[in-house]
Amino acid sequence: MQQENTEIKNLYHYTDFNAMQGIIVKGEIWLWNLRRMNDSQEMEYFIKELKLAVKNKLLPDEIKTMEELFQSHLKDFKTLSSYAACFSEYADDAAQWARYAKNGMGVCIAFNKELLSQIGDAGKAPLCKVNYSKSVEDLDLVSDLTAAIKNYKHFNQEQINELFNRLISSSPLFKHPSFISEKEFRLVSLPYNIEENLGKAHFYVEETNIKEYYILNLQKICSQLNIHYSDLFTEICIGPQARVTRNVLSNYLSANGYDELCSKIKISECPLRRF
């Protein structure tokens, strides 16, 4: 995975107040299974587009080799998943209030991007930018896989394995272009050695479902990195349809020992209509 370095200073996480309590007060951010999120093509989209791009660069008699390599190296791919916490470049965005914050009744937490990136690196879930490009033809991986297939007899198995590891590891960072309006960043795990990197799995039980997730302990990692915990949060924006007032949220934060965050509370200016 290649981390993103941009001039963006803040990233925004739209959620409900219960999750806000978990993030700010308990100091935990949960990484969810990408294959269970709202994009039904998560991780599959990149594989499909990259395979097509490679195929377009091959001669007819080379395609059989490509099919055999993809089949053998991706036979267990559907059993793999990355886990991620998602953020956006956009503050006070109507679409994300509606989709991720209980139709505007929740909250949006702004994170210092630089500090969040440091935490991701330390927690083995690096902060990466999602790519929404329809075309993957110009990627180095396409050229490298094409060269490996065309010169298959001159490549050893270790080299081939490394290429497909790159392919699988890149798959969580590409989404269908129809999601481009989200402008998403992710704290995202590699699809290998999940428990070795993130610790034991946890389970969230709903009335009709059980969801698996992993935890990044924000307070613990901030302490390890000598980051002042409150500096991680740059803003707490109350949703445009939320029943929570600024005073109530301020009193709640103070009661939990986070007086420094009270001055960072704001009210959404988004004129979102509740349906």
Quick overview:
This protein has helices at 17-25, 44-55, 60-73, 94-100, 113-122, 140-150, 157-170, 194-198, 218-225, 246-255, and strands spanning 10-15, 28-33, 83-88, 107-112, 127-129, 184-188, 202-205, 210-217, 233-238, 265-267. The chain is an alpha+beta fold and 275 residues long.
What does this entry look like structurally?
It is built from ten helices and ten strands. The radius of gyration is 21 Å and the shape is elongated. 36% of the residues lie in helices and 19% in strands. The protein has a six-stranded antiparallel sheet with strand order 5-6-3-2-8-7. A four-stranded mixed sheet has the order 1-4-9-10. It is an alpha+beta fold and 275 residues long. The two termini are 40 Å apart. α6 packs antiparallel against α7.
Share of helical residues: 25-40%
Total count of strands: 10
Helix/strand-derived category reads alpha+beta
Intertermini distance: 40 Å
* Principal-axis shape: elongated
Strand order of the largest sheet: 5-6-3-2-8-7
Radius of gyration: 21 Å
Strand percent estimate: 15-25%
Number of DSSP helical runs: 10
Mean pLDDT: 94
The secondary-structure element order is EHEHHEHEHEHHEHEEHEHE
pLDDT < 50 runs, ≥5 residues: none
- Biggest β-sheet, characterized? 6 strands, antiparallel
